[in-house]
Amino acid sequence: MENKKHFQTGLILALVLSILLLLAVSFMGCATLNTDADLTEPLKKITNISMSETEESINVFIEGDSQLVYSAYKTTDPRGVKLDFSSTRILIDGAGRSLPANDMVSGIDATENTDGNQTISSVFITLKEDVPYRLTPTDSGIRVAFPKSREPNLQEKKAAHKVEPVSPPSTNQLDKIIAEPGENRLVVLIEAGGAIQNYKAFTLENPPRIVVDMFDLKSPFGRMQKVKVESAYVQQIRHFAHPEKVRLVLDTQRGFLKKYAVTSTNSGLRMVVGEPAE
């Protein structure tokens, strides 16, 4: 009788342990699923594309429901500026079909592509002529500005000054970085011996930084370089080389993360942090 009682007790314990084990496995499975869902990056959305004209520039506004991460570069065939937005959808139809008359932009097309789990949206601005452009973050997206007054290109300078032709550099290489503090802004000049047109600008909030990745650019420096800046807008500039790009980081304050502009120049890039010079 005693043996039978022990057997029943052991059976009950075994059943309880089995139930607890099944509950634990189910809980872990649910936790894993919830963790994976939390790690899924939510898709940003482009909600509007518009164009306006001022006395200084033609402006294309790309607006979203949150801060947009993009890369921008020029193309020659067809002539224009292309912006790629990772993890972003397009929630508008017929972008750019009705544009105000102007001398620079002939069309704006927006497309969305999905490759596996990655969704990338592109905005292509077709240009009537080769003109420089400036990228400026806004509260709801980004402004692509095409200044009406521009500095002459190399060929125009040669014709105006009748100088002897010089051989262009075989590849773009980072030459120097110049910081010019001003009363209401900081100007950063990235000199590379040629125009930098393929770059990606974005911001990071913790700690606040403005980051520019410059592709198709080499650096003669083997280690990270630091440039101290005496400015209320930027405390330090850092740059370092990767195999496929050079990364420039501006350590700034949170209030200036949406107050910067990047412009491609004949010799590299020009950045302004603070109030833009109109």
Describe it for me?
The protein has 278 residues and is an alpha+beta fold. The protein has two domains: 43-149, Immunoglobulin-like (Sandwich); 170-278, Immunoglobulin-like (Sandwich). 17% of the residues lie in helices and 46% in strands. The protein is built from two helices and 18 strands. It has helices at 2-39, 154-161; strands at residues 44-53, 57-64, 70-76, 79-86, 88-90, 105-115, 118-127, 134-137, 141-147, 176-181, 185-191, 199-205, 208-215, 225-228, 234-241, 245-252, 260-265, 268-274. A nine-stranded mixed β-sheet has the order 5-1-2-9-8-17-18-11-10, with no helix packed on it. Strands 12-13-16-15-14 form a five-stranded antiparallel β-sheet, with no helix packed on it. It has a four-stranded antiparallel β-sheet with strand order 3-4-7-6, with no helix packed on it. It is globular, with a radius of gyration of 27 Å. The termini are far apart. The model is unreliable at 27-40 and 153-170 (pLDDT under 50).
Rounded Rg:
27 Å
The structural class is alpha+beta
Overall structural domain count: 2
H/E element sequence: HEEEEEEEEEHEEEEEEEEE
The helix count comes to: 2
The separation of the N and C termini measures 99 Å
Main CATH class of the largest domain: Mainly Beta
Q: What's the story with the biggest beta sheet?
A: 9 strands, mixed
Instruction: Kindly report the spatial arrangement of strands forming the biggest sheet.
Output: 5-1-2-9-8-17-18-11-10
Into which percent range does the helicity of residues fall?
10-25%
Strand content: over 45%
Low-pLDDT ranges: 27-40, 153-170
Mean of residue pLDDT values: 78
Basic shape = globular
Could you name the CATH topology of the largest domain?
Immunoglobulin-like
* Annotated CATH architecture of the largest domain: Sandwich
